Amino acid sequence: MKLTELDTPSLLIDRDKLIRNIARAKASCAKLGVHWRPHLKTHKCLEIARLQIEDPTGPATVSTLKEAEFFASNGITDLIYAVGIAPHKLPRVDRINKSGADCKIILDSVEAADAVSRYARTAGTSFRVLIEIDCDGHRSGLKPGSPEILEVARHLKDGAALVGVLTHAGGSYSAHGDAELKAAAENEVTAITRVADDLRAAGFPIEIVSVGSTPTLCAAEKAPGVTEYRSGVGTIFDLFMHGVGVCEIGDIAESVLVSVIGRQQEKGWLITDGGWLAMSRDRGTASQAVDWGYGAVCDINGNLIPELWVASANQEHGIIARRDGKPISESDFPLDTRLRILPNHACPTAAAFDRYHIVDHGEATEVWHRINNWE
Amino acid sequence: MKLTELDTPSLLIDRDKLIRNIARAKASCAKLGVHWRPHLKTHKCLEIARLQIEDPTGPATVSTLKEAEFFASNGITDLIYAVGIAPHKLPRVDRINKSGADCKIILDSVEAADAVSRYARTAGTSFRVLIEIDCDGHRSGLKPGSPEILEVARHLKDGAALVGVLTHAGGSYSAHGDAELKAAAENEVTAITRVADDLRAAGFPIEIVSVGSTPTLCAAEKAPGVTEYRSGVGTIFDLFMHGVGVCEIGDIAESVLVSVIGRQQEKGWLITDGGWLAMSRDRGTASQAVDWGYGAVCDINGNLIPELWVASANQEHGIIARRDGKPISESDFPLDTRLRILPNHACPTAAAFDRYHIVDHGEATEVWHRINNWE
Question: How high is the pLDDT of residue A330?
Answer without folding.
Answer: 83
